[in-house]
Amino acid sequence: xxxxxxxxxxxxxxxxxxxxxxxxxxxxxxxxxxxxxxxxxxxxxxxxxxxxxxxxxxxxxxxxxxxxxxxxxxxxxxxxxxxxxxxxxxxxxxxxxxxxxxxxxxxxxxxxxxxxxxxxxxxxxxxxxxxxxxxxxxxxxxxxxxxxxxxxxxxxxxxxxxxxxxxxxxxxxxxxxxxxxxxxxxxxxxxxxxxxxxxxxxxxxxxxxxxxxxxxxxxxxxxxxxxxxxxxxxxxxxxxxxxxxxxxxxxxxxxxxxxxxxxxxxxxxxxxxxxxxxxxxxxxxxxxxxxxxxxxxxxxxxxxxxxxxxxxxxxxxxxxxxxxxxxxxxxxxxxxxxx
Length: 339
Prior knowledge:
The protein is of the alpha/beta class. The protein folds into two domains: 206 residues, Rossmann fold (3-Layer(aba) Sandwich), CATH 3.40.50; 94 residues. The protein has 13 helices and 14 strands. A seven-stranded parallel sheet has the order 3-2-1-4-5-7-11, with helices on both faces. A three-stranded mixed sheet has the order 8-10-12. Strands 6-14 form a two-stranded parallel sheet. The protein is globular and about 60 Å long.
């Protein structure tokens, strides 16, 4: 029997390259197609080092035709590239619908990595004494605040997974705040690089508002393991899909933005890289250009429980060994390589 072909978006990313390593370990004979921009010989060689059966196709998330073409060649599509790039998700769904029409009774599988931004309470950096703790069992995306991030893409994905004509097997994974030094292509997470850039410009570590908003945390190696765990369950027909196929990839540990921002500020100050230790709110001229997107993601509390994964028997390993605060200095050092 031929092995299913996987089309992977985000293969060179922080989470995507960690997942690619796990695929190479457990499914080295599964063909993988990776769409990457600026596909230099060096970047191709790096991916070939990770997975022995990978084909690199050059293209960007805005290349709708390239995405559709590759989706039509695949049995499984996994998107760990960008949870908020609607044009690429739209192209993926279009390709999946066409693919489904050519294989009645055997719909393609789509695993999409989103984020817990769907849960934001939009507290503008303040502590919320009535914060809702969401469960992913029985979760209905239409119960989330409609102005929250990720929903523009996620609601159409669920619709594709629940329709009768040309259906798609859809699964959406919602990581919390991913941390830790990566072992794949990208060593640092986007939020860390983002806040390091602001610290460099401002001379201090900053927060959206007072930084009392909280979020679940999860080590990048645990998050990649969750992606593989759900992938395996889907292959075996044991994963919930469609309207029920929504999974929080989180641990029960939560942390406020102010906690890690303060440690970031102290560490950068100790290295003589910024003017002030600790942290403080960033000024309006910095936070307001990002508008609601920034306030919702960086100023809101986003807290859920991974009840689906708990029921399925998954348990964190790396998150229990080292916390976000414990890994932060090493992650900052990795991020400073591009300072």
